[in-house]
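Figure S7 source data.
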Amino acid sequence: MRNACAESESDTVLLPNVETATFQEFFTWLYLRQLSEPLKTTGAERMRLVKLWVFAETYIVPEFQNAALDALHKSLDKHDSMPAPSVINYVYENTIYRSPLRKLFIDLVLEHGSITSYFDPAKVRPTPIDADFCQEVLFNYALRYEDEGLNKTQMEKAWDSRESCHYHVHNVKDTVASLDIPSKNLI
Ligand SMILES: [Zn+2]
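Tokens for the predicted zinc ion complex:
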């Protein structure tokens, strides 16, 4: 949306790096307080919701952020297929360490999905997956399975019993100052 900081010369507010579709959806949400109907393909749906979440975090609109999270959580819970590497990469390129969105994807892969779907060397994936994601998955796998001694059934139960509220932003400080939060409570 063109370059920022030109609003003093016109009545236009410019938002850098925001796709028109994302802003349109935010604008609609402002009036209706609900997200538009899901798209038909789940892959595109996940990318759309992740972009809404990142937009909401950037412009500090926690209510919109949580609405996007709820829809995303529902989509991830409902469908067995794991998100495409492009979705994971977008999340990791646009969020900081310990972001609730990263936490959601780590929990998903460890508790509800399949780690091997991303790391099976026999599978050729055209999109390389983010190195930080790989590292966090490996670390959390070791933490939960080896240090805490959890098994697959316990992990699946943890996912099933957790509401999407667990990943909400209830305080803007959760987003902006998350680096101060002790790591034990996160990811
Ligand atoms: Zn909540």
